[in-house]
Amino acid sequence: MAMHTIPPKRKEIYKYEAPWPLYSMNWSVRPDKRFRLALGSFVEEYNNKVQIVSLDEETSEFSAKSTFDHPYPTTKIMWIPDSKGQLPDLLATSGDYLRVWRAAEPETRLECVLNNNKNSDFCAPLTSFDWNEVDPNLIGTSSIDTTCTIWGLETGQVMGRVTNMVSGHVKTQLIAHDKEVYDIAFSRAGGGRDMFASVGADGSVRMFDLRHLEHSTIIYEDPQHTPLLRLAWNKQDPNYLATVAMDACEVIILDVRVPCTPVARLNNHRASVNGIAWAPHSSCHICTAGDDHQALIWDIQQMPRAIEDPILAYTAAEGEVNQIQWGATQPDWIAICYNKAAEILRV
Question: WD repeats span which residues (predicted)?
Answer without folding.
Answer: 266-308
